[in-house]
Amino acid sequence: MEKVIGIGEFGISNQVNDTIRTYALASCVAITVYSSKKKVAGMIHVALPMPGEKNLHKLGLAYFATTGIPLLFERLYNIYGCSKDELKIHMYGGADSIRQDDQFRIGMRNVEAARSTLAELNLMIHHAEVGGTCSRTLLMEVATGKVQVTTQPLSI
User: Which family does it belong to (predicted)?
Assistant: First the structure.
């Protein structure tokens, strides 16, 4: 079965016939996590670095790097029995805007927030494909942890 992860969502599976997919990562960041020992795969698609005072409850914890990433790992540890040392962590997305006047630089800020959140959790990124000016779609196989990345140039 294919699980589709939307913006501000995460998913975890231990069913080896499953795949996990997310579409069109531009400035958003996806973290993929895999335990080859337990055949457990997880993915989160975050849109913003951190919540503001008013938008956390409206958008949900997984919408933000600083709140969603810890939630993903909490579930991997407590529900699926994974341990830190068995997890392979990849990061994708965080594209730069093709507009020259982009003052917000959300893509870069999402990458920085994801990196610092993972560091606070004492987790190491094993592979990163971030930045640039392309949109990325990911397909992750639960059986192997393999992540297929499809890119498309960003347009105005």
Answer: Belongs to the CheD family.
